[in-house]
Inverse folding.
């Protein structure tokens, strides 16, 4: 199989012309429009409602102030993918500002929005806890999130080695909470037909929604159909199943009519998750040559009083550098706020910010080049387990990145360009990998066209292009002859679109299904399947060539169908890589920034990233992913923050008007992204690993390190806003 590595996006035309239909675009006869009534206190109880005025408005049909209890099967659901076990409208408790406390249903959206303002809710207020300043405690052992990784990790004697180290560095790094704000807000349309439920939902994994809703109502999963052909961005916000999806389906059941709910931008701040505020305490010990002897990384993150979400920012500390003594720990700060969650580059995005900054500080303490320090501490095997890497070409990425950027030739300590101070910085990039059980069906028709069928979603990363591309390459077809059929739980099961595992898992299933098609064609000709090859719409063996149309015609069939599956050891639904090896992606990011010391302005001037990610299926979409990740990382580094107002107990800005986000003018044209030549034999037949989340790791540290190079000022608190850059002498 030879992949066409520069294929353009196959879904581009329908998306730029508006033909693609998203969850909020669907309507059905007789539907009601739902709008949530949000709590205006951060903690307390609902003592009563006044709904008369709302119900008197034209078009208003119901004001739901409670919903029937969920089935007992709900208690057995794993969390995640159930985002939170706390379900509003099941009791009078209020745990956070913006929590849904009622739902208005009306014949039009306008009527529902107007009626919400007329619902009076009476509260008994209680003291609330500011999560930002709450006491950090160990996460609950009952938390499903806590079970995703080790809250405590020890290797060797990190405390003793740190105390004995000739060179030590101890610093604290912080990052604020951030909201993902995808272009498409979360939306769902739920309709019942007798005991069968159909929902159009904006999600990253439909089958989790299917299983969750089935458990809510105590029905079988095949009685629930979830449809999501296009998802307008997710960033992790739509990875898990949030209360609004459950409430909408329950409302439709309760009133006997279809119900449609599209979250407002303000709802997106209180109903679904966000990346939590985190504090990192990093301590490094090294000898005089820069070899690390001790690494300690402690992390606290904000969570809700209802659930413990754990953001495992200590992950890179156990994966990036060869060090004999490692100690990591995770704590949570519980407060009256909605639950935090995965957001693009969870775990390694926050972790590389802190660790990448600390390594730069250590390099300057040692008077050593930051890249040289990393080369000295390169981990040839997994530092935490000693297992070999499934594949790793980080040294090659360092070398190529330094060459392309001109790292070794750069002026040390910054330069000037007019009134701008210019500086350069670099950092490591890494991301853990997940594999998910996935299935695919490939149909080859007599007219030489084919389709790929599976229940995957495309959140904008290019799945709609990649999987037809894999099938086309396997079958020897032009990609224009292959279409993707996705976004429906009636199709073969597909793993989730998160964890950087989509291409790896679904790609393996598609490759297997296409190969089964070739095997069936070979059997029809009585040719040995292991010796045939596909070429330009025909099967070839020992100089003999038969077009697919002829084979199917001779067999008297209109199509041949192949099935493929990504099967994991032990029948697991997910794992972190093949047994016996450690699987990660790696990379190096180099940036040049400009700082205006008089105005406190920070500008990105150029960036170079080189990555070790296994085989690259489509260089065009992959490079686009990496550029998008750079933009995301720049927002994290220089602009984005969601602030919890300590007096009101709520998010201060709950719409895009008060959120600084990167735009075209913030990103220069000099973005150089490339990949080393690599094939990982352990992950699957394609040799490819995930890149979507890797793309946003290491960026914040590289930017902060460049700021230090330009100004001599070490910024340890994100984002790097003008107040942190202004010359105090001004």
């Amino acid at each position: 199989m030879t992949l066409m590595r520069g294929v353009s996006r196959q879904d581009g035309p329908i998306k730029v012309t508006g033909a693609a239909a998203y969850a909020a675009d669907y309507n059905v006869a007789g539907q009601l429009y739902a709008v949530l009534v949000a709590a205006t206190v951060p903690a307390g109880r609902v003592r009563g409602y006044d709904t008369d005025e709302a119900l008197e408005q034209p078009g208003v049909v119901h004001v739901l102030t409670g919903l029937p209890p969920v089935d007992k099967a709900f208690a057995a659901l794993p969390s995640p993918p159930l985002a939170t076990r706390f379900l509003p409208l099941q009791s009078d408790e209020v745990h956070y500002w913006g929590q849904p406390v009622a739902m208005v249903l009306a014949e039009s959206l306008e009527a529902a929005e107007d009626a919400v303002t007329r619902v009076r809710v009476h509260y008994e207020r209680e003291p609330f806890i500011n999560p930002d300043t709450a006491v950090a405690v160990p996460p609950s052992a009952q938390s499903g999130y806590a079970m995703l990784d080790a809250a405590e990790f020890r290797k060797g004697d990190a405390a003793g080695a740190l105390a004995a180290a000739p060179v030590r560095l101890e610093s604290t790094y912080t990052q604020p909470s951030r909201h993902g704000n995808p272009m498409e807000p979360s939306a769902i349309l739920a309709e019942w037909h007798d005991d069968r439920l159909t929902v159009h939902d904006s999600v990253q994994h439909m089958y989790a929604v299917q299983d969750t809703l089935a458990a809510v109502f105590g029905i079988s999963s095949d009685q629930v159909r979830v449809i999501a052909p296009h998802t307008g961005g997710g960033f992790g916000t739509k990875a898990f199943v949030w209360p609004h999806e459950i409430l909408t389906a329950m409302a439709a059941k309760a009133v006997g009519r279809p119900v449609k709910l599209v979250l407002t931008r303000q709802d997106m701040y209180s109903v679904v998750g966000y990346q939590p505020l985190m504090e990192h305490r990093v301590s490094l010990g090294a000898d005089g040559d820069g070899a690390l002897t001790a690494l300690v990384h402690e992390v606290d993150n904000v969570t809700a009083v209802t659930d413990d979400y754990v953001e495992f920012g200590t992950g890179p500390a156990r994966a990036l550098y060869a060090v004999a003594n490692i100690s990591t720990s995770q704590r949570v700060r519980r407060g009256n706020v909605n639950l935090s969650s995965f957001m693009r580059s969870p775990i390694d995005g926050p972790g590389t910010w802190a660790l990448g900054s600390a390594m730069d500080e250590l390099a300057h303490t040692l008077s050593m080049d930051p890249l040289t320090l990393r080369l000295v501490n390169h981990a040839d095997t997994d530092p935490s387990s000693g297992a070999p890497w499934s594949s790793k070409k980080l040294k090659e990425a360092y070398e190529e990145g330094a060459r392309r950027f001109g790292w070794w030739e750069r002026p040390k300590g910054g330069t000037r360009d007019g009134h701008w101070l210019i500086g350069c910085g670099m950092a490591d990039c890494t991301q853990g990998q997940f594999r998910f059980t996935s299935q695919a069906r490939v149909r080859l028709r007599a007219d030489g066209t084919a389709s790929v069928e599976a229940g995957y979603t495309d959140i904008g990363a290019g799945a709609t292009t990649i999987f037809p591309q894999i099938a086309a390459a396997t079958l020897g077809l032009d990609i224009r002859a292959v279409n993707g059929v996705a976004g429906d739980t009636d199709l073969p099961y597909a793993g989730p679109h998160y964890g950087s595992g989509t291409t790896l898992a679904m790609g393996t299933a598609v490759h297997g299904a296409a190969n089964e098609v070739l095997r069936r064609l070979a059997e029809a000709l009585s040719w040995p399947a292991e010796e045939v090859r596909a070429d330009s719409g025909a099967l070839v063996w020992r100089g003999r060539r038969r077009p697919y149309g002829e084979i199917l015609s001779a067999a008297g069939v209109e199509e041949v169908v192949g099935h493929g599956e990504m099967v994991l050891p032990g029948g697991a639904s997910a794992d972190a890589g093949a047994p016996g090896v450690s699987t990660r992606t790696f990379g190096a990011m180099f940036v040049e920034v400009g700082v205006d010391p008089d105005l406190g302005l920070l500008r990105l001037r150029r960036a170079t990233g080189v990555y070790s990610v296994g085989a690259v299926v489509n260089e065009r979409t992959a490079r686009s992913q990496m550029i998008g990740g750079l933009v995301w990382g720049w927002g994290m580094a220089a602009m984005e923050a969601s602030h919890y107002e300590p007096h009101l107990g709520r998010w201060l800005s709950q719409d895009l008007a008060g959120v600084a986000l990167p735009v075209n003018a913030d990103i220069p044209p000099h973005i150089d992204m490339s990949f080393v030549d690599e094939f990982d034999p352990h992950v699957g037949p394609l040799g490819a690993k995930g890149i979507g989340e890797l793309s946003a790791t290491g960026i914040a540290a590289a930017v902060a390190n460049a700021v230090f190079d330009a100004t001599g000022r070490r910024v340890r608190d994100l984002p790097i806003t003008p107040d942190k850059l202004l010359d105090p002498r001004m």
In short: The two ends are 63 Å apart (CA to CA). The chain is about 25% helix and 25% strand. The first strand starts at residue 32 and ends at 38.
